[in-house]
């Protein structure tokens, strides 16, 4: 891409990227929030026990996030655009294969492994693209983008349940294939911004330093260890643990809540309606949280820990009121309002704790721990039910895990914050390789190149403005 097309943060094509990210999250919404309807479809079609059937969607949900580090590598090596298009093709093909699998074991591989991997690439790239395209309005943009999850669940849950009722198992999964193919359309809109290009240029120039070329294997491994160490600071570890524990509980609920509704005497359509209520509340809360967190007097970490605490408390008490439809509606409103707020805040939290230059990598680690939680939660629910427990007891245990995760969420904001972000200011924060200190400077790609240009090239009179558009030079 030419330098002239790459937009500055919060301007120009950045808003088209926001639309694309919203559209991708719209599709995510059904496969994250209303995944319980897919579980019902698999249970009814294959007639296997709950635990074995849970493996397919547990792996799917786990890889949705576990593929975050790989997605980060693709984003860092190529772009968010390449990452999402690749993921869209993969997950669409996986749903076609799922429609024709003869047994649940085949579904575990087609849907769980390949579908989860493709969805994870789309999920991470749609989120990281917002961080690269917004600064002043990053929290607001994140809130708008991730609100697509709620709208997607609200819209698609009853539609796809109707498709399932009318066209059966095969019609449902072929429809899902066509739906996920739209990831490719949204991915095509994710042109790199100046922030993304500047970050790549700084990374590329830092790797061709003469001294670094002469380093031995030991020194390189030592540098790699130091680099990884930055991503395991206490505050970041607390973020990882909070997402791990909370997502065990949340995705146990998402996968098994529809089955709980059926078990207490309500219909499939009632379950779809409840998940739709959860979805629309999720949408509203993410926008409100993103807007509120954009204010300079709001602490993201207080909102991060507080929302998890509230959902944990109401979930732990669910068996006392969840047997009536009104109680289920109340719980879905609460779950929708508080369970997804963290995703409006994670961009800023990662940048505050690690800096914008490490956003893709740190977010990949967050998604790794999130994915492990997403994998364990549904299996834990199936294990409890298969061994004499009830869906209500499983949900109550989920609430206890979410409360425990909320303690780590509170702790993540108590330590040192090495990064920063703009709130109601007009400076651009640029992180220099030589120092951990922040500088408030205004600069474009040629300025970055001139500052990082090797001495040899400076002596030869290389023009930074020309090099900014020279793809061959930048790639070397």
Automatic annotation (TrEMBL):
Q: Which SUPFAM superfamilies match?
A: MFS general substrate transporter
Question: Which stretches are transmembrane?
Answer: 12-35, 55-75, 82-101, 107-128, 140-161, 167-191, 236-257, 269-289, 301-324, 330-355, 362-385, 391-413
| Residues covered by the Major facilitator superfamily (MFS) profile domain | 17-417
Source domain of life: Eukaryota
Gene Ontology CC annotation, any one: membrane
Where found in the cell? Answer: Membrane
- Which keywords accompany this UniProt record? Membrane, Transmembrane, Transmembrane helix
Topology relative to the lipid bilayer, per the entry, is: Multi-pass membrane protein
Alphabetized GO MF terms: monocarboxylic acid transmembrane transporter activity
Q: By its UniProt entry, which InterPro entries does this protein fall under?
A: MFS (IPR011701), MFS_dom (IPR020846), MFS_trans_sf (IPR036259), Proton-linked_MCT (IPR050327)
Q: Which Pfam families match?
A: MFS_1
Q: What is this protein called?
A: Major facilitator superfamily (MFS) profile domain-containing protein
Native species: Magallana gigas (Pacific oyster)
């Amino acid at each position: 891409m030419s330098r002239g097309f790459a937009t500055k943060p919060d301007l120009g094509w950045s808003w088209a990227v926001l639309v694309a990210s919203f559209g991708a999250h719209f599709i995510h919404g059904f496969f994250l929030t209303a995944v319980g309807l897919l579980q019902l479809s698999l249970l009814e079609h294959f007639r296997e026990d709950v635990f074995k059937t849970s493996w397919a969607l547990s792996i799917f949900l786990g890889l949705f996030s576990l593929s975050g580090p790989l997605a980060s590598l693709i984003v860092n090596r190529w772009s968010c655009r390449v990452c999402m298009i690749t993921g869209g093709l993969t997950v669409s093909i996986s749903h076609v294969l799922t429609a024709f699998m003869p047994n649940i074991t085949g579904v575990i591989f087609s849907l769980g492994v390949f579908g989860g991997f493709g969805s994870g690439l789309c999920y991470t790239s749609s989120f990281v693209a917002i961080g690269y395209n917004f600064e002043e309005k990053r929290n607001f943009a994140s809130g708008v983008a991730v609100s697509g999850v709620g709208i997607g669940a609200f819209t698609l849950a009853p539609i796809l349940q109707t498709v399932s009722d009318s066209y059966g198992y095969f019609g449902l999964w072929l429809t899902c294939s066509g739906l996920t193919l739209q990831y490719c359309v949204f991915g095509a809109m994710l042109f790199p911004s100046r922030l993304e290009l500047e970050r790549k240029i700084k990374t590329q120039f830092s790797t061709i330093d003469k001294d670094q070329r002469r380093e031995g294997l030991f020194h390189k491994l030592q540098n790699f260890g130091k680099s990884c160490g930055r991503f395991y600071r206490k505050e970041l570890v607390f973020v990882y643990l909070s997402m791990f524990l909370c997502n065990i509980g949340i995705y146990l609920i998402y996968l098994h809540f529809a089955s709980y509704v059926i078990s207490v005497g309500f219909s499939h359509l009632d379950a779809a309606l409840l998940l739709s209520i959860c979805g629309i509340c999720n949408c509203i809360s993410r926008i409100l949280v993103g807007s509120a967190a954009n204010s300079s007097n709001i602490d993201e970490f207080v909102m991060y820990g507080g929302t998890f605490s509230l959902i944990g408390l109401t979930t732990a008490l669910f068996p006392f009121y969840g047997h009536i439809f009104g109680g289920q509606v109340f719980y879905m409103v609460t779950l929708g309002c508080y369970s997804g707020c963290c995703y409006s805040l994670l961009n800023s939290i990662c940048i505050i704790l690690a800096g914008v230059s490490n956003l893709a990598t740190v977010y990949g680690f967050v998604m790794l721990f999130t994915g492990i939680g997403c994998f364990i939660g549904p299996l834990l629910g199936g294990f409890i039910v298969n061994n004499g427990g009830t869906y209500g007891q499983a949900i109550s245990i989920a609430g206890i895990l979410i409360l425990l995760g909320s303690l780590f969420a509170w702790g993540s904001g108590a330590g040192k914050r090495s990064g920063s972000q703009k709130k109601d200011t007009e400076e651009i924060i640029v992180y220099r390789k030589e120092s951990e200190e922040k500088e408030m400077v205004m600069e474009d790609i040629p300025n970055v190149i001139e500052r990082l240009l090797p001495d040899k090239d400076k002596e030869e009179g290389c023009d930074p403005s020309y090099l900014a558009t020279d793809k061959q030079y930048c790639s070397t």
